[in-house]
């Protein structure tokens, strides 16, 4: 079957096993994975989902698309992920009227999900992981995807593994997995029976076949990214740029290798002139996007980050010579 066939089921099972959870439900992309997870967890109209303003806009859009309201808490300036203290403060500001936390593992570095899980338990909230950028990243040896009530991945071409377009919801909860599987397939429970109103968010068999091959290669891709990151960090030591940190218990998978400097815009121009493809993720915080005009948010740490971060190449296809050239270009600038 070219559409939703047995290969998709195999990819779901293999990817869930890779994450150390019981169930996977493949989706058409990472955004629909988030929408599907919210739906399967019964989050929607009237609910509030707390998340980071420093992410790709899909994280917050998916919250709005399920009918819920995104609430933003500020980030930690060193990890760029949700700051657990800011999360608690924000929940208190809302008198506890928050229903879930969506934790994004930005750039491939896991958020502090152990703390966030404690906070979720204390305030009786659901925890969902947006692991779109973090396939295979770990916290205390446990892979991301296994910390939340559900977790969502993207297999977009720029991600650490790809299916062209594609995504996955993973969860240990069989009921949530069943609901998710129905939601991506028109609420179908049997060939001609539809028990819920659902979407067509299915992954194709062709994409799943690519995903199975990519999953086998993922550990080598991650290793290459980590080696490239280590060489960049060593090369950039004692320059004025801040290099990425990796807290002791976390394994970064370097979807992006993001440095920080007050002279970001000048450095970007300099790297462009040297034919080095650097990029800014993200130049505008989500709450500062025109589509979020109606949201009144204070997140000064996220806003400051948008002015100073710069991601330089770290992907598995660059070699030591490329990295030395990047390092020389950055050093030359300063
Ligand atoms: C953090 C984050 N969440 C969600 C998404 C959405 O994934 P997709 O582009 O596959 O819809 C992305 C992908 O760009 C992402 O980086």
TrEMBL record:
One GO BP annotation of this record: polysaccharide biosynthetic process
GO MF annotations in UniProt: pyridoxal phosphate binding; transaminase activity
InterPro entries per the UniProt record, alphabetical: DegT/StrS_aminotransferase (IPR000653), PyrdxlP-dep_Trfase (IPR015424), PyrdxlP-dep_Trfase_major (IPR015421), PyrdxlP-dep_Trfase_small (IPR015422)
Keywords: Aminotransferase, Pyridoxal phosphate, Transferase
Claim: Protein biosynthesis is one of the keywords in the record: no
CDD domains listed in its UniProt record: AHBA_syn (cd00616)
Domain of life of the source: Archaea
DNA damage recorded as keyword: no
Family: Belongs to the DegT/DnrJ/EryC1 family.
Protein name: DegT/DnrJ/EryC1/StrS family aminotransferase
Source species: Natronomonas salsuginis
């Amino acid at each position: 079957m070219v559409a939703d066939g047995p290969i998709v089921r195999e990819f779901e099972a293999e990817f869930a096993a890779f994450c150390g959870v019981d169930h996977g439900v493949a989706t058409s992309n990472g955004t629909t994975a988030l929408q599907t997870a919210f739906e399967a967890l019964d989050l929607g109209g009237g609910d509030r989902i707390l998340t980071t303003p420093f992410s790709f806009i899909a994280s917050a859009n998916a919250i709005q698309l399920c009918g819920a309201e995104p609430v933003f808490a500020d980030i930690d300036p060193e990890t760029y992920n949700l700051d657990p203290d800011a999360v608690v403060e924000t929940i208190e500001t809302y008198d506890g009227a928050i229903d879930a936390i969506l934790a994004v593992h930005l750039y491939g570095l896991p958020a502090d999900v152990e703390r966030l899980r404690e906070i979720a338990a204390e305030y009786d909230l659901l925890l969902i992981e947006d692991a779109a950028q973090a396939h295979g990243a770990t916290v205390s040896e446990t892979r991301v995807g296994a910390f939340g009530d559900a977790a969502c991945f993207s297999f977009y071409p720029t991600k650490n593994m790809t299916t062209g377009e594609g995504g996955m919801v993973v969860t240990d909860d069989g009921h949530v997995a069943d609901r998710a599987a129905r939601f991506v397939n028109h609420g179908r429970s049997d060939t001609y029976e539809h028990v819920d109103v659902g979407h067509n968010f299915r992954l194709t068999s062709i994409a799943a076949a690519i995903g199975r091959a990519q999953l086998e290669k993922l550990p080598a891709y991650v290793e290459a990214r980590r080696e490239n990151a280590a060489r960049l960090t060593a090369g950039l030591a004692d320059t004025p740029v801040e290099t990425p940190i990796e807290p002791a218990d976390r394994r970064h998978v370097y979807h992006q290798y993001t440095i920080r400097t007050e002279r970001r815009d000048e450095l970007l121009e300099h790297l462009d002139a040297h034919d080095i493809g650097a990029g800014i993720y993200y130049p505008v915080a989500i709450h500062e996007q025109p589509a979020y005009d109606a949201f009144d948010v204070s997140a000064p740490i996220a806003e400051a980050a948008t002015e100073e971060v710069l991601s330089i190449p770290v992907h598995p296809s660059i070699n030591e010579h490329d990295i030395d050239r990047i390092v020389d270009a950055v050093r030359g600038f300063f």
